[in-house]
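Minutes, project check-in
Item: structure for the 204-residue chain
Input as provided by the requester:
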Amino acid sequence: MRAMSTITLSEAMLLAQRVVDLANMAGTPVAVCVMDLEYRPVATMAMDGVALEYVNIAKRKAETALRIGADTSTMTEPDWSPRDHMVMAARGLAVFRGGVLIDDNQGFTICAIGISALSEYDDEALGRAVEQAVDIVGGQLTLVPLPRTYQPVDHSVANHGDWGGPCDATDAAGPDVTHTHSRLGGITGQVSGPSASGHGELRR
């Protein structure tokens, strides 16, 4: 039976390379980080032309998915309060899409992937494409064959995004109070102030 404590370097490289292959098909360079269950960035790749900021965001997305035990897209749901959203951002975590958990055939999480540099929706779509390709055969991680084509889901941002810096993680909803208290130590306080969403759809 496969040990669930970590992912090997070769497996992490396989997952990261699949992200790169899909992004190449779409003509959309990205940064990707594959992180094991002990929060180690086992494999990190930045395609040509991708700024360092996006590498750091990819790492934050992967770590956040592991810490909350779910894809980071769940933090955009209405029951995550602005207060708890700020708690997450203050701790250096990412509160937008693009962090995806990778599970084995039995539903056990083996790692997380963080993807950045496109819109958060395209980042998430790439992660889910890799997640759906994973198979465990004889205790080894494998991937189904690469599809013939892959297109980004959010063409307007993937082709015309004009924001070049890391997102401050203050423009998405945060986790509900109970969830945040159980995972982040019960920090409280009210958050107010302008939202980064005023910039429109950003590449993250």
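Outcome recorded: The chain has six helices and six strands.
No further action items on this chain.
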